[in-house]
Amino acid sequence: MVEHANRTPIGRLRIGITIGLHHAAETLWNNGIKQNAVYLAEALKNCPNVERVMLVNTTAIPITAALPWDLQRWPTVDWDGAKDSVDVLIELGGQISPDQTEYLKQRNARLVSYCCGTEYVSSMEAVLFARPLWGANLFVNQRYDDIWMVPQVANISQPYFEVLRRLQARAVPFIWSPVFLDQRSAALPNKGLQAPREGPRRLTVMEPNIDVVKFCLYPIFICELAYRMRPEAIALMQVTNAEPIAKERLEFITLMHQLDIVRQHKAVFLGRHDTPQFLADNTDIVVSHQWENPLNYFYLEVCWQGFPLVHNAALCPDLGYYYPGNDVSAGAARLLEVIDRHDADSLGFRERQRALIARYLPDDATLVTRYAALLDELVARPAR
Q: InterPro entries from the xrefs (predicted)?
């Protein structure tokens, strides 16, 4: 592999993908960004023009055997272990400094910004609602050779990426793998898969409730409308990640007391829960809503396990039970459809969902071909 300045890398590529560890035994399960790095690594390993892929930690946390993932499968190094050996560094879960950027540029390595968050929304909320985000320490790297963004963030955040980074962004294939889901579900009864159950249905709403993108209110309204029409069909509505707002936010409390499903004691507001465990132990149907994030891991986890998902994610309308936009009446109709019909073909549903989700898997041929082409285009252009 040629690494001299002003020369284009030749041959199969050695790629680093950044992560930012916060402690020495940090899990990958509860951090979507780190999962994204692993899924991208899995896909790139399948590209014919890639020799090796490693995760590159950008913090001072040491890399040791305490890390709870397979370091043979997903080699993980620090900056010093990567800086002289990568041909392409994909900045995803940890940011490199101006000096580190200059070092890569001197080596003629390529630098890619991989964007998988709704950064415009986060920035807007930080400014309007005094949520500390970067303070006085904002560094916007303007020396990327390319900007890759997952398609679900393009509509809201692409201009934000492009103006600040001074470079055009392009949408790239979304990647997901059941590898972590399978690990977490292995010890659960029936491996955490959905199974038909008699009686009124237990509804689950699992939005994060940390910003406006994924908030529980419209899923609650969907459950409320279905409950008004068929109260005997619904045993309980469970809203996770909602305990603080249900106890402390007067506006939320007073809104909830307008609803029959709450006033008739068929609703509970809970804290944070492990997704596979809560689905397996407590859930018959998942009800969801998003605003400007129409594809995410949670939907794929739910559908992979065969649970019916009532959702409005327009980038995957063939998954689960789709309703458009903010039409909670349509969502309630889909929910009642699930109650009446889903369990009659639950096994077939799970098989069909997995076949549809295959397009996002790291070994999907179309997905791998696209990433290989992106890398070829990247190294064929002069470095910035």
A: DUF2827
